Amino acid sequence: MAYHRGRGGRSGGKKKNRQVQGDEVIRVPLPKEGQLFGVIEQALGSGWMDVRCSDGKIRRCRIPGKLKRRMWMRVGDVVIVQPWEVQTEERGDIVYRYTRTQVDWLLRRGKISQEFLSGGELLF
């Protein structure tokens, strides 16, 4: 009987992107044109979240299947939101979720503020 050998090891053969923090080699994706920072306010189920965006609006955003299968989204996570072309003010897609280390980097660089994370207005 032949067993499936896989890629071996615990990591499954995947190599992760290492982030060096000593010389600030962290590459953090920033919102492109038309995208916004957001903080997840409420999980609604079926891949939908209420997200408070940096322009002050609360949008109902969906998590595309590509991200839904790869990572968990929780209340309080900082994300990048791509508003829909049709219902720009009410709906959007979550494009990226920041890790805690990346959020600290954004805070240090002044890209987001502590008030934005805690629920206040976004002040640069």
TrEMBL record:
Residues 1-18 have a biased composition (Basic residues). InterPro entries: NA-bd_OB-fold (IPR012340), RNA-binding_domain_S1_IF1 (IPR006196), TIF_eIF-1A (IPR001253), TIF_eIF-1A_CS (IPR018104). Keywords: Initiation factor, Protein biosynthesis. Residues 24-99 form the S1-like domain. PROSITE patterns: IF1A, S1_IF1_TYPE. GO terms for molecular function: RNA binding; translation initiation factor activity. It holds the Pfam family eIF-1a. Residues 1-23 are annotated as: Disordered. Seems to be required for maximal rate of protein biosynthesis. Enhances ribosome dissociation into subunits and stabilizes the binding of the initiator Met-tRNA(I) to 40 S ribosomal subunits. Belongs to the eIF-1A family. This is Translation initiation factor 1A.
